[in-house]
Structures are given as structure tokens and as C-alpha cells.
Amino acid sequence: MRLIRTVVREAVAAGPGIRRLVLMDPEGWPLPRQKPGAHIDLHPPDGLVRAYSLCGDPAQQDRYVVAVKREEAGRGGSLWLHDALEVGAEIGVSLPRCTFPLAPDATRHVFIAGGIGVTPFLSMAAALERAGGNYVLHLLHRGALPLPGHLPRHAVLHDTSAAPRPALADLLGAPAPGLHAYCCGPNGLIEAFEAATRDWPSGQAHVEHFVPPPLPPDPEARPFTLVLARSGASAELPAGAPLLPAIKALGGEVEASCEGGICGACKVRWLEGPPLHRDRVLQPEARREYLMACVAGCAGPRLVLDL
Ligand code: FES
User: Fold this and answer.
1) Atom of ligand 1 nearest to the CA of 264
2) 120 C-alpha vs ligand 1 centroid, how far in Å?
3) Which atom of ligand 1 is nearest to the CA of 293?
């Protein structure tokens, strides 16, 4: 796994329970390029890998900026990033991945953000500002603003502690050629967005989860043989057995971060299947070639992976 060494150059409070970190190369070299909407994994020393959207201007190639919400009930990664990580400390990060890109054919972008879900839209808005793109960001927040002072020019604020949540259909307007809608936030907001865009043309509504949605047991799951094509290693997996640990037990190397099908870290090419896809990141055409190993299963008797 390729990790990039970075140093924390700034760490400041930026809204309720939010710490904004600026990470730079230890010697100030440019970092690998980031696309608007991309995210990186942070690798704290305790092994708790966490994905965070990059929320700085992608044109600033000397830094990665992330905003970490303190999750008291989380797995502990955010608490370490809040309480233990100090300015001047080193932390390893992954290469940027972009599973939530700006649609290249869009003529207008409507962003719907819930709270800390605003982060990917900050890099997208910065890129659109630079390119003269047409966008609006609707930020739904409860009380204090996330990342005040870093919100883009065309932001419309909706304080849901002071008024009921606006109807998303009203914020989105009617679908039209060139109009693309995007949503990032809690699962309830994403579900409301998906309901509001159900009749939109295919490919014009985009979502990014920052919390993996619940993954119920798959009633279609069957036992299958897992084969790693390059090493020839194989194993018999019972119905519903998770794929990722089985791959690792056979010596296959796969990165993982969210382990819930939303971050794109564990993408693997499949050669024989077909797989049962249960992720939220791969587009239909990508699924013909790849699966996300943290949530995928197999619909046939054999799953052969390019590992
Ligand atoms: S680890 Fe995030 S999609 Fe699999």
C-alpha cells in the first residue's frame, strides 16, 4: 500500500465538534493531484484508517485539507484526530480517490449538503469558481455552521433548528438537460434526496455517503469458491461469508477503509463470477469489470479475482 508522508501544519476548530487539518509534505513538495470531490484515507498509528473528503482548493497542490467531525460513538479514529494529533506531527495518507466527481457535461450544479457533508462541495465549488462554473450549494445545518469562513460564495444556508427542513424538490427544481444534482450528508438526507430525484434522467443525480448505510444479510447469498487468479489460491466460502477477510487469508492484498462499500478503497478486478454488488460507489459500467471487496458476494458457484 502506498502511503504519503504528511505533516500537520494547521489544526483549528472550525464549527461544532469539527477540527480542520492542513496536511503538507514534510519538505513542502507538491502532493499528488486531487480532483474536486476527492477524498483521502488518514492512517493514524493505531491502524484505524478513516476516509475524509478533501475540502481545500484543488489548485493548491501543496496541501490536503480535511475537516474531522468528532464522533464520540465512532470507532475512535476521529477522537484520536481531535485529541492526540498535534501540529508538527506526521501522519500517513493515501493517494486521493474520487468517487464523487463533478459531472463533466453539466451546465449547472445543485449541491445539497447536510452538516459536515458540506466538505466535498468545498473543493468542487472552488474548482467551479475558478472555471466560471454555475452552481449553488444548499447547506442544511442545525444551529452553528460547519466550517464557517470556508463556505463558498453561492451558498444558501438552511438552519433546521430554526425552521423545518425545506422540501428538497423545491431546492432542486425540475430536472433539465445539463442540470446535475449532488447530495452528501446523513443517511436520512440521502434517502430524501434519492426520493426527490427518483424520476430524474439516469446519471444526473449523485450521492456520496460518509457513513456506510446498513447492509442487511443478502437472502440471495450462496456458498461459492473464491479463487485468486495470480497465485492460484482458493477457498470455499459459506453463504454470506465476507469476502475481504477471505481474500486476505489467501494472501491477497487489498486496501480497505470504510469497509461499508462507500469509499472505493477496496476495488478489485473480477475475472469470473458474476459478483453480487452491494457497494454505493461503482457505476454500472464499472461493475462489469470491478467489484468492491468489502461488501461484494458472488451470484454463481465461482468468483475469480485478478489478484
Ligand atoms: S473499503 Fe471502502 S468501499 Fe470497500
Assistant:
1) 3
2) 18
3) 4
For the entire predicted model, the pTM comes to: 0.89
Residue 220, Cβ density class (10 Å: 0-12 exposed, 13-18 middle, ≥19 buried) = exposed
Residues with CB under 6 A from ligand 1: 256-259, 261-266, 279, 292, 294
Successive 10-residue mean pLDDT values, the chain, 307 residues:
91 98 97 97 83 97 97 82 96 94 97 98 98 97 97 98 96 97 95 97 92 83 95 95 96 91 94 94 92 95 97
Q: Can you give the residue ranges of every domain in the chain? A: 4-93, 108-209, 224-305
Ligand 1 atom closest to the CA of 261, numbered from 1: 3
Exposed / middle / buried, residue 56 (Cβ in 10 Å: 0-12, 13-18, 19+)? buried
User: What is the fold, at CATH topology level, of the domain defined by 4-93?
Assistant: Elongation Factor Tu (Ef-tu); domain 3 (2.40.30)
